[in-house]
Amino acid sequence: MSEPVVVVGAGPAGLMLACELAMRDVPAVLVDIHPTQRAEAPAMAINAGTLEMLDQRGLAAGLREGTVTFPEVRFADLRLAFEKVQGPREPTHMVLQSRLEKVLIDRAVELGVDLRWATRLTGFEEAADGSGVTVTLASDAGEEQLRCRYLVGCDGRESIVRKQAGIDYVGDDWVIVRGIVGDVAINREDVAPEQYGLSYTDNGDQFLGAPLSPDVMRVFSAEFSTEPPEFEDGPATLEQLGDAVKRLTGKELKATEAHWLQHYSIVTRNAEQYRKGRVFIAGDAAHVHYPYNGQGLGTAIGDAVNLGWKIAAEVHGWAPADLLDSYHVERHLAGRLACMNIQAQLALLYPRPLARYMREMMGEFLKFDEVNVFLAEIVTNLGPAVPIAYEGVPEPVEGDRLLGRRLPKVQIKTADGDMGVAETLQSGRGVLLDLSGDASAQEESGWPTASTWSAPKPGTDLPGTLLLRPDGCVAWHDGGGWGQDELRTALRTWFGAPTG
């Protein structure tokens, strides 16, 4: 086997990245300190942007089955006009992180990822000539040194990779939210009406109760205004959860058993660098914040989808200059905006009575469509737009709603039958999507890393021809005055020199 890419941490970011590499014939070794997949995975929402990224790899269909959808998109406790986002788009689905991880584990195994449970990274050293990284791994079988092309830390908030790489984790030191999350056994008839769904106290504290089955419920408490007495060393208990639920809902929690519970406290951090030489970080290792709107999962999956094809391009020798550096540029922006908007949402909630005027002012701002669209895209991982600019090429038309974003969920007709745009990306290659009917895009056939799909223009206002990067991002289209010369520039920028 040629030198692999080593990914540390089998959470959503690590699993998705390993799949992104393996589907492009890049050997991946994925290591995780846990003996098997963790049940204690607190995330439970997959938003529109995350579903679109998973659809691009054919992974989302099964996740939708049997799920509950959230009826609204909110910024703190303010409703956003999600229907104003260019669509069609999907609502947020209640999908447990453990269910998503199982789908990704199955896919990783199918693709031949070398998945090593109960294995710990103890150290690494980059070669003096910058040609690779040697990692030291420890397991019950002993210690092993492994040479790899790149090392990617997806190992969470306390990332060993980030710390040993000397990357600063910048953010707020103060803890604004504390709570308990977990799954409890409870008879559905014993659940009080106040314990279903999401609710807020007058102080902005939150409670979420979500049935997972007739006798299991996911519970989530978030207390801003006080430091509850149970936040001490040691595991969370059912008694502590019961006290929190009584404080937040006014009703006793009649749970009979805790399947798992954990204390959590949230700080906000965004790493100063997402790349240092041949070492990268992604997911919570790169950014961490309060879990709101499904943004934690979405930002982690976004990191993996952005980085995977760029590493593969380097491995296979066709990457243009600075392609790997664009990972930090694009994803650091996404991490910064995730941290910023969530901190702003917390400020609107806590302390709720004192934030009344700020919420009223935000209500006035939300009367402007541009504000609604910007916030709705950010909190559903449909934004931010990737900054797209080309040297020597005029700037795109101001207000372009396609460039740097994924296309809406539209159906097209192709020689292979009707399909969604996302299906054209399932090979992991870029796509030159020709909807014009005049086959002008067929002239650009010298880039085998980007496939061309010709289809009649759907009943939408999409341009006639669009270039999509492998992550689904629109890198060029002919609707803003750009022509074939700009298309060739875009192809060279993202796919290197033509070979045909």
Automatic annotation (TrEMBL):
Every FAD-binding domain range: 4-337
Keyword list, A-Z: FAD, Flavoprotein, Monooxygenase, Nucleotide-binding, Oxidoreductase
Residues engaged in binding FAD: 13, 32, 38, 121, 155, 284, 297
A Pfam family this chain is assigned to: Rng_hyd_C
InterPro entries hit by this protein: FAD-bd (IPR002938), FAD/NAD-bd_sf (IPR036188), RIFMO-like (IPR050641)
Cofactor(s) required, per the database record: FAD
GO molecular function terms attached to this record: FAD binding; oxidoreductase activity, acting on paired donors, with incorporation or reduction of molecular oxygen, NAD(P)H as one donor, and incorporation of one atom of oxygen
Gene3D superfamilies: 3.30.70.2450, 3.40.30.120, FAD/NAD(P)-binding domain (3.50.50.60)
Record protein name field: Putative FAD-dependent monooxygenase
Organism: Streptomyces sp. NRRL 11266
Underlying gene: tmn9
